[in-house]
Write a structure and sequence with these properties.
The complex is a heterodimer of chains A (about 575) and B (about 160). By secondary structure, chain A is of the alpha/beta class. Chain A contains 19 helices and 22 strands. Helices cover about 35% and strands about 15% of the residues of chain A. A five-stranded mixed beta sheet of chain A has the order 2-1-7-5-6, sandwiched between helices. Chain B has helices at about 10-20, 30-40, 45-55, 60-65, 85-90, 95-105, 145-155, and strands at about 80-85, 120-125, 135, 140. In chain B, strands 2-1-3-4 form a four-stranded mixed beta sheet, with helices on one face. The longest helix of chain B has 13 residues, at about 10-20. Classes of the chains: A alpha/beta (about 575), B alpha+beta (about 160).
Chain lengths: ~575, ~160
């Protein structure tokens, strides 16, 4: 962007901005909140949708005959803008009323109620009746997948989901089809999402302003399980949840609420409250050992070994490469995700110790993610039809359940996780942010490879929000080259390079969502504010810094698990319980 | 819709069309236009093939195909029938002609008879208004038709 500065007036306030700034951005700079609907710009990530199609953000520009969309009109020097004249307010209200004219009146039972941007606008514009009786839309497709619920009758055609699915994630599952009144957003050939390339990353759900795309809700099922005296119900919580759920209770983004979250889960009636971070440490033991094994064999000249090794913790990422890169199925680590490792160990080692039969044990996970719901459902993670993890509920669902159970979250005391599956290291905590899995792996790989103790466990170079980051780590003379990508579009670039033999890395970490799991499709909605994501990531690094043990291989209960049950990483038992295989699912 | 693999010669032709346009996604509409001539319609497999060649999501190809009325995903009949709905033909009774075609063939506009012989469409003016109402069957123009003629013409073609 040009450095040239220009000055304009918005509602009689002077503001100076760089050339190229939109009226919307200039207004935000001086605290004038012009309403928007289709627009989203998650600064610092590549999530952006700017079609200027909804016309909610119109403003008056002096000397211009028509109203201008603030999101798509660039400021000019000396421009005079009015954002709240009678003409503007009436126009905005009519635009909203027209959008509402064919919108289903289902707010009372809509899963988005209270968090719906259209509902908020109706309230803000003081819309008290529906003046337009437009044509009724013919009913569109409804679909309930393992992760996502699609109700296209509620779609307002903002195209945010389409931008995210195609431009950001490059998945290409959702797009506009047909025209005019018959338009709908759907996979190609109007198929079901479950028959498309959809990875269930849930980023479409994270940006949908209304109730057209929402998560598959399992809270009713959970309430029933918790009330069943014959069942032992245990829970695992992913790292990113503790850095975000406070937002649902009015706390500042980035407020760590680990202890309150544990207390709330106890209040809800879980028999044991465990931590996915424990399984993250376990993942590092398996994935890190696999990485070292592949690396050593590669350096010894074993031609059957392909590098780089790719992380495999993220189920949307797994879906992505199974669909789009079936020729590279041998490259990702075979390690299961922490969620699945937890389920596997809980329903074998732990359940056997307590003498709980598999059928009476319900393992629930709290995840920032929607793809995890689908992952629980995969056949390879079931024993005789019984899943290792019974089901997964998102951060948002947990917050709703806590409110439903009359728990005053902010007044709860801080409590600790149960043992042994609740003890984790700082390495497990940072799994929730982009770069965190790689950093955790480096802490262990360095010490196992060199036999030396790390001077500092902080690998600053792999942290941050840049789409693709690279770093070289000195392993006692051997230069280990690592890469990190978040967002599937960034991942695609790296994979295309690998496919065409242009690889510079030994190991790559990939997370599907912007910022990693902290920006997951199941998290409290960011409403386009990327500061929320930065705050959540910082919270995880803060929790890591506050831990006494910060390396996975030093987790005492991980050591016990290997000593008493698994033997060593990559042992036959570990391969059976903690590793998986991938399928060619190209369409 | 049938999810058939494309015959080799069709695939070759479609590949050649894409190549002639430099596999450029910006040329999608032109490519689809030419590709539709290969089989008379754009089956799912052909759209997938074009998407792969141009490195764009198939949802985008399908979006364009369903946006423009010119593109069709239904196989045309051996005898594609197009009834002119232009002003001149319309005022001279082409709507009644169309109704008669629908009745006799038992299909709606945009459909093809189950035996694959006839398909029915509308068009706007072929520049033969002096012969209104006009019907095109394949490349042949039939002028000054009355509903009573419909059955005879279809039987002649059959």
């Amino acid at each position: 962007m040009d450095d040239k500065q220009i000055t304009l007036q918005i509602d009689h306030h002077f503001v100076t901005v760089p050339e190229g700034t939109t009226i919307l951005e200039a207004a935000q700079k001086i605290g004038i909140d012009i309403p928007t609907l289709c627009h989203i710009d998650l600064k610092g990530t590549c999530i952006k949708n700017n079609p200027a199609s909804c016309r909610i953000c119109v403003v008056e520009v002096e000397g211009r005959r028509n109203l201008a969309p603030a999101c798509a009109t660039r400021c000019t020097d000396g421009m005079a803008v009015r954002t709240s004249t009678l003409r503007v307010m009436n126009a905005r209200k009519i635009v909203a009323e027209l959008i509402l004219s064919d919108h289903p009146n289902e707010c009372l039972t809509c899963p988005k109620a209270g968090n719906c941007e259209l509902q908020n606008l109706a309230l803000r514009f003081n819309i008290r009746e529906m003046p337009f009786n437009g044509g009724e839309l013919s009913p569109r497709k409804r679909e309930v997948t393992a992760s996502i619920v699609r109700n296209m009758d509620k779609c307002i055609f903002c195209r945010r989901c389409e931008s995210v699915c195609n431009e950001v994630q490059t998945v290409g599952a959702l797009g506009a089809i047909r025209r005019g009144f018959n338009t709908t957003i759907a996979p190609a050939f109007d198929k079901m999402m479950s028959e498309s390339e959809c990875t269930y990353c849930g980023q479409c759900v994270a940006v949908c302003p209304v109730g057209a795309l929402t998560e598959r809700d399992h809270t009713n099922r959970l309430v029933e399980d918790l009330a069943d005296p014959d069942k032992t119900v245990i829970v695992q919580t992913a790292p990113a949840v503790r850095a975000a759920i406070g937002e649902e209770f009015g706390l500042q983004p980035g407020t760590l609420v680990t202890g309150k979250m544990v207390a709330a889960l106890r209040e809800l009636g879980f028999d044991y409250v465990f931590d996915t971070d424990f399984a993250a440490d376990l993942t590092i033991m398996e994935e890190g050992t696999e990485m070292l094994d592949r690396l050593t064999r590669y350096l010894d000249g074993d031609k059957s070994v392909r590098l780089p090794i790719l992380t495999s913790c993220c189920p949307a990422w797994v879906n992505f490469f199974e669909h789009q890169f079936p020729d590279l199925l041998d490259i990702p680590s075979t390690a299961r995700s922490p969620q699945q490792m937890f389920g596997s160990i809980a329903k074998t080692w732990w359940a056997e110790q307590l003498g709980i039969p598999r059928e009476k044990l319900v393992v629930v996970s709290i995840m920032p993610c929607l793809a995890k719901k689908y992952e629980c459902d995969r056949d390879e993670f079931k024993t005789n039809g019984n899943p290792d993890v019974d089901y997964s509920i998102s951060t948002r669902e947990l917050a709703r359940l806590i409110k439903r159970a009359n728990i005053s979250f902010t007044l709860l005391p801080d409590m600790d996780f149960d043992q042994p599956l609740g003890t984790s290291t700082g390495a497990g905590v940072i799994f929730g942010a982009t770069g965190g899995v790689m950093e955790a792996a480096l802490r262990t790989v360095y010490e196992l490879y060199t036999g030396k103790t790390l001077k500092s466990v902080n690998f600053q170079a792999v942290r941050g929000m840049e789409g693709v980051r690279r770093s070289t780590v000195d392993l006692d003379g051997f230069q280990l080259k690592v890469g990190i990508a978040h967002g599937l579009g960034n991942a695609r670039h790296l994979l295309e390079d690998i496919r065409h033999g242009r690889n510079e890395y030994h190991a790559i970490e990939i997370m599907a969502c912007p910022g990693g799991c902290i920006g997951g499709g199941g998290q409290p909605l960011h409403h386009g504010n990327s500061a929320v994501l930065y705050a959540r990531a910082n919270a995880l690094y803060k929790e890591d810094a506050g831990k006494t043990i910060r390396k996975s291989h030093e987790n005492p209960f991980i050591k016990t698990l290997y000593r008493e049950f698994l033997g060593k990483p990559l042992s036959e038992k570990a391969e059976h319980l903690l590793h998986t295989h991938y399928f060619n699912r190209s369409i | 819709m049938p999810d058939t693999k494309l015959p080799c010669d069709v695939a070759e032709k479609v590949n050649a069309i894409c190549q002639a346009h430099g596999d450029n996604p910006g040329e999608l509409i032109n490519i689809l236009h030419e590709a539709q001539h290969v089989m008379g319609y754009l089956p799912e497999e052909m759209q997938r093939m074009i998407a792969r060649r141009l490195s764009i999501p198939v949802s985008r190809v399908y979006g364009v195909v369903t946006f423009y009325a010119f593109f069709t995903m239904t196989a045309k009949g051996k005898y594609p029938i197009s009834v002119c709905m232009g002003t001149a033909c319309y005022v001279r009774g082409s709507e009644k002609l169309l109704e008669e075609f629908k009745r006799v063939l038992g299909i709606d506009v945009g459909e093809t008879t189950p035996d694959g012989k006839f398909s029915l469409d509308c068009l706007r003016c072929v520049g033969a208004c002096g012969l209104a109402p006009v019907v095109m069957i394949g490349d042949k123009v039939y002028g000054r038709l009355q509903p009573v003629d419909v059955k005879r013409i279809l039987e002649e073609l059959d």
